[in-house]
Design goal:
The protein has 9 helices and 9 strands. The chain is of the alpha/beta class. The chain has one domain: NAD(P)-binding Rossmann-like Domain (Rossmann fold). It binds NADP nicotinamide-adenine-dinucleotide phosphate. The site of NADP nicotinamide-adenine-dinucleotide phosphate (NAP) has 29 residues, from helix 1. The site of NADP nicotinamide-adenine-dinucleotide phosphate has 29 residues, from helix 1.
């Protein structure tokens, strides 16, 4: 049975620590884990690290988190009751949430035709709706304190959409747009909203991609309509990731620096490719931009040439 929704304003919110309290989602691996390891090194923060229940065991070997300034909590961001319970516990026992970092994210690979409503909804639910559910539940506290930082991990996919990545891009575009609205809304209360925008990171991130059933089949079947689309895009992403000079650790350092700024900007491009692609898109006439991107897609000359046999 679901608990009744918790009213945060009725909770006793006496601050119990001088450290800034950070609530981080998706801390079990990848960028989230690297960030948690970076942030615990100083003495400024109290970390509430969250991860899905099944992933909590990944913290077991990490002695760095055996600290009185770290809490480990199970949180699936799709479970709103769990989200509200974690926030309520933090407020009740620590007194506040100073910094919220929405890092948890998923990547779906599928062409539009091979995708389904359910894939599209899950992608939007994790990458856009869940971060904003978290945000909705910390804003009144932050306003009361006249202080807060909200860091949303976006992506180059949040300003440019690539083939086979439509749902991922749609979710990151949504995250970007809503964060921009929030940036204006929160100005009077000293609450800073920042989008961290990586391009490719030399990591396992895109290897954790979920694929629609049709995508899985098409990758194997050379005669399927979108076989070349998938193989080309997989190759491109894998090559670019492994050639990247950015790692989860270098991005974590940049986020740490952003947290120390009094007035961080709304958008920060944290990899060279994200920065270059942003300017390329901004400066090129749209027709040229789309032509060049299309022209350089791997195996694009083979697209649409197969003798289809589904
Ligand atoms: N890697 C890149 O090249 C890249 C580029 C641009 C942007 N980004 C963004 O960076 C962020 C971190 O990605 P990453 O590369 O570190 O990916 P990752 O290694 O796959 O890690 C994703 C994290 O999100 C968590 N997560 C997924 N669904 C969740 C849910 N329903 N509830 C709670 N946690 C959930 C995962 O938990 P589990 O361990 O339980 O699965 C994991 O901790 C994402 O927002 C991603 O879009 C990454």
């Amino acid at each position: 049975m679901n608990n009744p929704t918790i009213n945060l304003t009725n909770l006793n919110s006496k601050r119990r620590t001088n450290r800034k309290i950070i609530l981080l989602t998706g801390a079990s691996k990848g960028l989230g884990l690297a960030l948690a390891k970076k942030l615990i090194q100083g003495d400024e923060y109290f970390l509430v690290l969250t991860a899905r229940k099944a992933s909590m065991k990944r913290f077991e070997g990490e002695s760095i988190f055996n600290s009185e300034f770290v809490w480990l909590r199970s949180l699936d961001v799709l479970n709103y009751q769990q989200t509200e319970n974690v926030i309520a516990e933090v407020v009740e026992k620590l007194g506040n949430v100073d910094i919220l970092i929405n890092n948890a994210g998923i990547t779906d690979r599928s062409t539009v035709e091979d995708s389904t409503d359910s894939y599209r909804k899950t992608q939007m639910a994790v990458n856009y709706l869940a971060p904003f559910h978290m945000i909705e539940h910390v804003l009144s506290l932050m306003r009361k304190n006249n202080y807060g930082k909200i860091i949303n991990i976006s992506s180059a996919g949040g300003f440019m959409a690539m083939p086979t990545m439509s749902s991922y891009s749609a979710s990151k575009y949504a995250l970007e747009a809503a964060s921009e609205s929030l940036w204006y809304e929160m100005k009077p209360w000293n609450i800073h909203v920042t989008l961290i925008i990586p391009g490719f990171i030399d990591s396992e991130g895109f290897e954790n991609t979920t694929e629609s059933r049709k995508c899985e089949k098409s990758c194997i079947n050379q005669l399927s309509t979108y076989h070349e689309h998938y193989i080309g895009m997989k190759q491109l992403i894998s090559n670019r990731m492994h050639q990247s000079h950015s790692t989860n650790e270098t991005i974590a350092k940049q986020i740490d620096r952003v947290l120390k700024k009094d007035n961080p900007p709304l958008r920060i491009y944290v990899t060279l490719d994200a920065w270059l692609l942003f300017w390329f898109r901004k400066l090129m006439p749209p027709k040229i931009y789309h032509f060049v991107i299309y022209r350089f897609l791997p195996r694009v000359k083979r697209w649409g040439k197969q003798v289809y046999k589904e």
